[in-house]
Amino acid sequence: MTRLIVAAGGGGDAVAAAMLAAALYGDEDRAVILTYAWDRLLVDPVPGPRSPADFTGLEPLTRSVWSVPPEAHPIAPAGSTLPRLSAELPHTFALINPYNGAEGMVRQFEELVSHLDPTSIDLLDVGGDILARGDEPTLKSPLADALTLAACYQVNAPIRLLIAGPGLDGELPLATVHNLLGPLVHTFTAKDIEPVSSILEWHPSEATGMLAATARGVRGICEVRDAGLLIPLTDDSPTVHEVDLETALRRNELAGAILSTTTLAEAETHSREICGHSEIDYERDKAARLKVQQAEKLNRSTVLSRLAQFENEARSRGVTHTTFRRLTEALNLPGSQREPLRTLLMETTPEQYAAPLWDLTATDPGTSSP
Predict the structure, then answer these.
(1) Rounded to an integer, what distance in angstroms lies between the CA atom of residue 238 and that of residue 83?
(2) Distance between CA atoms of 295 and 290, rounded to whole angstroms?
(3) Within 10 A of 136 (CB to CB), how many other CB atoms are there?
(4) Distances in Å between the alpha carbon of 9 and those of 86, 126, 319?
(5) What digits encode the pLDDT tens for the residues 145-171?
């Protein structure tokens, strides 16, 4: 039997899809995870999602859908986590190509459903921003989720919309997300995280990282992103809830507006009109700024001094945990230094590692020394 899981926003949603497959379906069914190759600028310096033309070594599943095997490679300068995910997880990762708009995605999805005849189809979103109206001031990345929602709504097959880690993406007010949730489907536990534990050591997704950490029992306030958003880590954080697909589409104004789009550019135009911005525009602007940021070798003393200052200030804001992405940006380091920074901190104060987060309460202020 085959389970089809659509990772609504790509990136960390694909990792969460692997967690969901293990937790709900176990080893008896194989999963095909349909996802964007859209890894943001920490991994992929090219703004926007990747298309099949951006890879070598893809394998055809249907006329319009390609799988990403371990041997696939993004064509430089593009980057992608999908080949490594494919190498380290037992699932098939199939590529969503949004460049023909929602109509093109509907064709891809229906071809795949016809080819696989899956036992079930889940549309999975970590955080819940797929439920956004579009005018929320905290909404930063509506386009990817709106496209998958618009496409799935038009597929001639039963699809279950699942929200994991309500509020963990920081896109909607937590109370808003909770008010929209339907029945509880599952609560992730530490055992559920085991199949992706090695992935979480290197994958940069903040929302899925917090989802995994809370499944392991971490609670507190986590500071994320370049904007320093504060995300509560609560007993509700590791839960998975069902939401009616039609209700979500009626609420999501952007998804409703892009149902008949035939290009990604057309969908972007609707995003600018309805939400006031396009997340790809944000990536374009940020990529231009990062081009002038020079990579340099980490200076241990300088980094640890800056870290101590950041940790003290973060504690004063009530922060208990943060992500390595947030640390990289808060310390004014280029994204390429995320892994070297992580290695340095793990060598210096490994007791602060609350996988895959960094615990600001594990040591007393000032105990780390250069």
Answers:
(1) 27
(2) 10
(3) 15
(4) 18, 8, 27
(5) 999 999 999 999 999 999 999 999 999
